[in-house]
Structures are given as structure tokens and as C-alpha cells.
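Review form for a predicted model. The reviewer records the input and the model, then writes brief findings.
Reviewer: anonymous (R2)
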Amino acid sequence: MKLKIVLLTLAFFFFNQVMAQTTVTSVISSNQVWNSAGSPYLINQNTLIDSGVSVVVMPGTEIIGGSVNPTLLIDGEFRVMGTASSIVEISNLKMDYSAVSLDYDANSGTGAYMQFADIQGSGLGADRSISLKTTDFYITNCKLTGAYYAIYSYSSGSTDTNTLTIDSCDIQGLGSSGTLVYVSPTTTTCIVSNSNFSNGRAVFLRGIVDVFKCNFYDLQDIEIRVNADVSMRCNTFLNISNGIEVELYNRTAGVSFVFEGNLLDSFTARTSASAMLLLRYSTAFIHPAISINNNNFLNGPRKIVISGNNPNTARFEALDFTSNYWGTTNSADIDTMITDYNDDITIYGMANYTGFLSDTATSDCSESDSCPTPNLGYSFDGMTITFTDSNYRGGYIVWNYGDGTAADTVYSGTVVHTYDSTGYYEACMYVYNNLGQVCDSQCVQFSLNEGFGCQASYYVAVDTSNPFNLYIVNNSTGTTTNTSFSWVFGDGNSSTSATPRHTYDSFGYYWLCLTITDSATSCSSTFCDTIGMDSNGVFFKKEGFTLQVLDQRDLISVQEIEQRLDVSVYPNPSTGKFSVKLNLNKASLTKLTVINSLGVEVLSSNELTSAGSNTLNVDLSEQSNGMYFVKVAVGTKVKTYKVSINK
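Model under review:
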């Protein structure tokens, strides 16, 4: 009898294991969480995730498409959250993010996001595992195999924009057919890092492109169309039979193509037009700034081919190929590896390969190299400000202008913003590295006046220790490091110093004028007023009097005491618990904000701090290891510190 009970129990257990599956309906109209307990999830027909509806796939979940190779049409949110120890498995299913699907949001971690998933295509012609239209999409630590297109990004119009981020993925094709990643819109931003692409026909990228520390091997073609800034750094290209084709068909000024620190080897050059690197270059387009340096061009019959129409054969344009290693130091041999204007005068470009390296090139490909310390500057033109990061070296910057408008994501070191109203603003830039992580930030404070980028102004203050001295306090606004000053004292004398000292020979009224001019902002403003002193120290003085111009920013005792902000953070690195020590010269409200490397705010607090020493204790022990940014704001003073947590 006991044996029967055991057998019945085991049979019931295995029956439940076999029957533990979920059949997905054709329309998903309410929020759902798919997990391993409900696996496998069977999708036997085309299925819609309705707008505003969220489906979150938890670790260990299995999703299987039926024999009809169905499409999961995503008008809402579809987020895959596998882990390294419990991946999500998806097979025989086409996932199509529509134009109204929820974008990936780095701050909340929601939207079109996939991590630690094994995605297997059907192997059918034109099969697309992941299709994107205008959706911002982030995929990391995933493996994609068996699809004609692993990731396919397309658009219905030239104004559609989206960002595609691929990090630490392994994407394998179908041998000689199919394209691993296909991006067609010129308005797409492609950020690709630390990933492998192999065993397929091609990789096709267009728009703003940043490819960093990736491996490409056993492919026929890599095609890049330069319609915007393109950066390809620290990658390995092995056995690319037709080479890397770069189409320099740009119609916008100020665009760059950077190809640095790459290794190219074992190219077979299947056709007479193919080479390790093929540049299509024509006089019919605006040419980008080209930098092709510190690369290793190793084994292959042809290393560079430049092609393109040149209607005026008497002229050409030199392209920068200096400081590369060509597998030889014989300039004659190098010349035979390159096809350019020197070989055919109907080609517009000529490779300048002088200064070639005598040994293999080395480059600093560390992650920190992709995140230089920002150097934020700005200039005025009325209510419009041009912000510039002079240390920009690639990646992208998110600009927050401090006026309530939406932040801008920019893949260059310059951005222009127009403010709608006057006032005092704080603008901040957040620098992201090639992994889509915040790696540094910087803020700047400034004031704007209606109709002017700058406004001359001053007011008069009496020196209480010397009644016959006048202080002229320069409180002009909108000044920059380029601003020049002109003081006309009204007695025939003048000065171009920002803070001059002048003595009047006799009493009387004097018409004191200040003119400020800024060449960078094309701004000029003049302010005049009457000054003077008498023998009682209020206007007029028989023997004359002296004035001293001061910059209001240097004052401590005029109008109000300016807050001083001294901050230290310790211990750093820490195990998650650390202190922020502030030394203030007056009581104030202090705002403390902590942001992680993905740009997500993990802590925010407001503290009433007193004059003198204050200590704020921070506990991030529940956060993961990594780099964090501690932002301390007291009044208009803001300081940001990097803190490393290593538990």
C-alpha cells in the first residue's frame, strides 16, 4: 500500500511538471509578469501587447513561438529580465516593437530592455528576431542565433529617431545569408560595445554610430554609411571577406569619421573592388573630418581602396592615414596595398600614410579612456547659449538645461539651447561612456537678462574704514572670460581694467560710464550714473576723492554674505556607508543627491544645515558595487564627487 502511494505521488508530480505551461492569448490587455512557474509560455498566433500594457519576463522563463513563426507586436512594454545564473529562453518568435511601444528609460530601467536572454530565430528567410521602429532599445548580455536578421531597425520617415544600444552580446548569423544587425534610418543612434558578431553575411549600420571593443569575424561585409558622426575604436575584424565598406555620403557639415585602435587581419578580398577598408568618397557630398590612426592592417592582399567620382582630375583631397601599422615598413610595399588618386586620377581621395609605424600599434582601450573629464564652457547670443565640452572624445552627453525643458542627448561636444525667460539657471551635462553608463558630470550657473546676453551695471558703496573712498561694485551680468571692460570716469580719464582704481583731483559731479563687450557673444552694453563726494563723505570732497572698482563676485560683506561650500567625502572607496562633511559659513538648506553609473537616482534628501561643520551620513549598503556620483547643492553652489563602493 505504501508503494502505491509513493508511485501515485510521483506520477502526480511529473504530470504537473508536464502540464505547467501557459498559452498566451492573441491580445494582452492587462499588465502581466511571466515567470518560470508558468513556463513555457506558448504563443501560437500573432499576439498584441496593447498600448499602455506591461509584460515583464522574469529569470528562468521560457517563451516558445508556434509552428507559424508568430509575431509578438509590442505597442506597450516588453521587458526581459534574465540573470547570469537564470537566463530567459526565447525561440521561434518575432518581437516587433512598434512606433508607440514604450522606450527604454535609463533612469527607471523600464521600457524596451533585454538582459541575459538566449534568443533563437526560426532560420527562415527574412526572419527578424527583434524589429524596431522608433523605439529606444537596450540589449545586454544576450545571445542571438538562427535569425536572418537578429536586430532590424527601420523607420517610416526621416524625422523618426531612436537609440539602439547593444552591449556584451553574442550575435551569430546563418552563414552566407542574412544580416546580423541592420539599421536603415539615418536618424538612429547606434551604441555597440563589448560584443561579438560572427558567421553571417553582413552588419549594416547607419546614422550616428559608436562601435567600441567589439569582435567581428567570419563575415562577408561590414557596411557603414556616414550620415552623422561615426566612431569605430578598439575593435577586432578577422576574416571579413569583402572588408569594411564606409560610404562617406554625408550632406551635413561638421560630421566626423574616427577609425582608431582597430586590428584587421585575414581578409580574403573576394572581388577586385574589396579591401580591408573601402572608402567611397565623392565630390558630390560634404566630406567629414576623417581620422584613421593607430590601426593594425595585417594579412590581406589589399588594405585600402578609395573610390568615388572626381570630375576635376587636377585636384584631390588628402585623407589622414598616418600612424598606422601596415605589416611592413617598406613604403613601396605599403603603396601597393592602397588604391587611391595616385593610382587613378578619377578618384578624389588620396591616402596620406606617412609616419607609418615600425611595429604593431597600441591604443589605450580601457573604459576610462572613453570618459574624459568634461571641461564645460558656454557663450551667449541673446537668450541663446552655446554649451561646449572641449574634452569631448566620443560617447554621448545628456544635457539638462535647468529650465524645465526636456533633456537633450547629444553625440558631440557642442549643443545650443534657447531659453524662454530671464532668470538664474543651472545647466548640467552628464557624460556617458560606450556602455551607456554615466561616468562623469559637470554643472554651470549663469543669469540671463531680457534682450541681452550681457548687461552692464554697477552700484556705489562707501568704504566704512575710509569715508573718502568710494567702492564701485560691478554687478554686470552675462559676462564670460571673453568680456572686456571700458571705464570712462568723466574727468577725461579712462581705463580698460576690470577693476581699476582712480583718484579725482577735485570735487563735483562726475558721469561714470561702464561699457562691457564680449566678442564671443557679439554682446555690448553700457551703463552710466552720477557719482561724487563732499567733505562729509557724501558726494563732493574739496581735495578730491578716490574710487575703487570691485567685482561683486569677490565681495563678502556687500548686500549679503555669499555662501562658502567646503565638502569632503570619506571613506572613499567605501563598503556602502560613507559621510559627507560640509563646512558652511551660514545656515542653509542642503540637497544631497546620489546617482548610479546608469544615471538612475538612488538617493535624494534635503537637510537643514547650520553654519560651521555638518556631517551627513549616507547608507548605500543595499546598492551594488560600482561608481556613484554624490551631488551636493547649497543655494546656488553645486559640487559633485565620485564615490566607489566595493563591498
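Findings: Confidence is low (pLDDT under 50) at residues 1-19, 537-543, 556-562.
Further findings: The longest helix spans residues 2-19.
Recommendation: see findings above.
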